[in-house]
Amino acid sequence: MNTADILILGGGPAGLSTALHLTRLDPSFARRILILEKEHYPRPKLCAGGLITDAEVILERLGLDVTQIPHVDVETAHFDFAGRGLKIRNGKGHSIRVIRRDEFDAWLAKNTENRGVEIREGVTVTAVLPDPDGVTVETDAGTFRAQIVVGADGSNGVTRRCILPNEPLSTSRTLEVVIASAAKQSPNPQRLLRRGERPPRNDIHTDAYFDFFPVPQNVAGYVWDFPTQVKGQPMRCWGVYDCNLLANFKRPALKDLLAAEMSRRGFNLDDCEIQSHPIRWYEPHKRISVPRVLLVGDAAGVDSFFGEGLSPALGYGAVAAQEIAESFRRNEFSFGRYKNRVAFGGLGQTLFARWLTSQILYPLKWAWFQFLVWRILQPLVIVIAWVFILNWSKRLK
Ligand SMILES: Cc1cc2nc3c(=O)[nH]c(=O)nc-3n(C[C@H](O)[C@H](O)[C@H](O)COP(=O)(O)OP(=O)(O)OC[C@H]3O[C@@H](n4cnc5c(N)ncnc54)[C@H](O)[C@@H]3O)c2cc1C
C-alpha cells in the first residue's frame, strides 16, 4: 500500500496552495506530502481566469510571480446594470489579471514540485474512508493510506461526497465560451441608447465587464465579458453566472441570455463551443471538515456573489496549512477548529460578506433596485467592496 503523512486530493489552485503554504511554514513538510491529480498538466479547466489582487498578494507571499505566464491585464473592471454602471481601477495599473487555467495550474504545479512535493498525475480518487487512526483513499491506481487528507478536488469532488454525504449543497451554474476578439461595433451609440440598447464598448482589449441585467429575470448573477488570450492570440471570454438563489421563480435559459447579450455586442454564440460547470459556494453554517479530513477551495465553498474562486482557493491553502501544521505539532487530528479558523480570518470575512451580499442583492431583484445599486449608489458600493470584499488577503496569517 502507498503511504504518506498528508495526502492532497486534487492538484488545482486550492490543493497546490495548501502544499506550497505547508512548505513555506516548514520545508520538511515537502517529503511528507503526496498530491493525487486525476489529469495530466497542462489540463483544461473551465474558468474565465480572472485573478483579483488578493490572489496576487497570496502568490507573492509564496515567492511566485504570475507575470511569468501569459496573461492579459484588465485596466478597468465595469460593474453595470444594462450597459452602464460603476468602474473599478486599481493603483497597480490593472484591476484584474486574466490567465488561462491550463497554463496557470501547470505553472503552480511546477513550482510546487520545485519545492520538493511529489504530484502523482493521472490518478483518480474513487473513495475517501477516514477512521480513528488515519484515512484510506481508494483510487484507480491502488489504495493509499495517510495520516490526514485534504479534499481539494473541486465542486464535483468525491471527498466531500464521502465524508459529508448528507450535507445539502448550494451551487451556482455557469456557461462559458471563448471567441475571437474582433467584434463589430455599433457606429451610432446615441441612437442605440435612445432605443434602450447598450452603448458600444470601445475598450474591449483593456476592460472587463460584469453586467447584472439578468437579475430582474430571476437569474441571480451576471453576464461577463473579459479580454483573454489563447496561445498569444487575443480572444474574449464570455459567460453567464447564476448562483441559483432565485431558482424557485421562472427563469430564461442561460444560453438565451448569453446569446442575446453577445449579439448586442456583435458576437454570435452559435460560433462558439458552450461549456458549463458548477461552482460550490461557501455557507457560514456548513461543515468543511471531519476528523482527519479537511476541505479546501471549491470542495469547501467559494464566493456566492461573483463565483470568484481563485483567490479563495489560494487563501484556503494558507488557512489549511496552519491547521495541519498545528495538528501535527499537537498530534491531534480532529480539525475541530478549522471551520472557525476559516470563518474568523480574512478569508472567512470576505466569503461571509459575499454570501450576505448575495442573500440581500439578488432577492431584491427589481430593475429599479439594481439600477440604484450599480448606477446611483456607486461611491457607497465601492467603499463597501473595498472594505468588506477586497483586500482580505492582507489579513491572512
Ligand atoms: C465557468 C467558470 C468561470 C470561472 N471564472 C472564474 C474567474 O474568472 N475568477 C475566479 O477567481 N474564479 C473563477 N471560477 C471559479 C474557479 O474556477 C474555481 O473556484 C477554482 O478552480 C477552484 O479551485 P480548486 O482548486 O478548489 O478546484 P479545481 O480548480 O476544480 O481543481 C480541482 C482539481 O482536482 C482534480 N480532481 C477532481 N476530482 C478528482 C479525483 N476524483 N481524483 C483526483 N483528482 C481530482 C481536478 O482534475 C482538478 O485539478 C470560475 C468557474 C467557472 C466554472
Instruction: State the CATH superfamily name of the largest domain.
Output: FAD/NAD(P)-binding domain
Tell me the number of helical segments per DSSP (H or I, 4 or more residues long): 11
Helix and strand succession?
EHEEHEEEEHEEEEHEHEEEHEEEHHHHH
Looking at the overall shape, the CATH architecture of the largest domain is: 3-Layer(bba) Sandwich
| Total count of domains | 2
Low-confidence stretches: none
Q: Which structural class best describes the helix and strand composition?
A: alpha/beta
Helix fraction, binned, reads 25-40%
| Spatial separation of the terminal alpha carbons | 36 Å
Count the strands? 18
Ligands: flavin-adenine dinucleotide
Q: Tell me, what is the CATH class of the largest domain? A: Alpha Beta
Q: The CATH topology of the largest domain is what?
A: FAD/NAD(P)-binding domain
Mean pLDDT: 94
**Largest β-sheet summary:** 8 strands, mixed
Shape verdict: globular
> How many whole angstroms does the radius of gyration measure?
21 Å
- Which band does the percent of strand residues land in? 25-35%
